[in-house]
Amino acid sequence: FSFSPLLSLGCTVKYSGYLGNWSKLFCSNGNSKYPRLMKLGKDITLWGLEIGLLSMTKGEAALFILTPEYAYGQRGCPPSIPPNATVLFKVEVLDFIDSEECDAFFELTYEQQDGLPLEKVLKVAATEKEFGNYFFYKQRFRIAKDRYKRALSILGCKSSSQAEQSQINASKLLLFLNLSLTYLKLECADQALKYGELALEMDQGNAKALFRCGQACLYMREYSKSRDFLARAQCIQPFNHDINNELKKLARYYKEYMEMEKEMCCQMFDPLNSYG
Fold first, then answer.
1. pTM higher than 0.85, yes or no?
2. In the Enzyme Commission scheme, what number(s) does this protein have (predicted)?
């Protein structure tokens, strides 16, 4: 059995492995809220488990009984797995992400990449974005940021028509928004603002981009700029709770800032007044 065709397939799986009649648990990741992305043939190497996973679809749960030749063989895996053990696995597939096309794309020269059909390029970029989303929700923001940037690098291709450029720009817009949010999570407000403004260059009325820019400016204490961005976002989506709450936060922070400025001024002039 060759694992090579499977090496590009990543999956997130909740699993529990048992010995006997479901009586002895020997491995599990069931307590993990965000199971890590694993590659078949690399992180998951039990032959029977791989065959079973490849028969499943996203969201499906299954029970597998693996005889020794499909599991740990004659030797077992001491001390947890005895020789010639039949094991039972309870699994749930949360997601599948196939990186084969991405891996193949980055093995090409720049000239070869430019020669690919746009449909293929967009698909590779979308897969990279999926990886970024996965790591974002796992709160591994630096890896997510790198994946989003990798997707952007794929979209640097030349377009042959306005229609193709529109497709490229639509994909770029989503990545700019994702990068802006990711940089906010990384507390890099200047970069969050940069990517928010790049999104606005493509869509001046994008409420999400305006909101991200407003958040970034608020973080940097640029209150006037923050108010401008957030007010524009509110005009587009007047009942958006996130936007309205951010404006309330801005008002509170600005009030605190002004009170602090007033107190500093009083402290500066009080010594002069004392010599009246």
1. no
2. 5.2.1.8
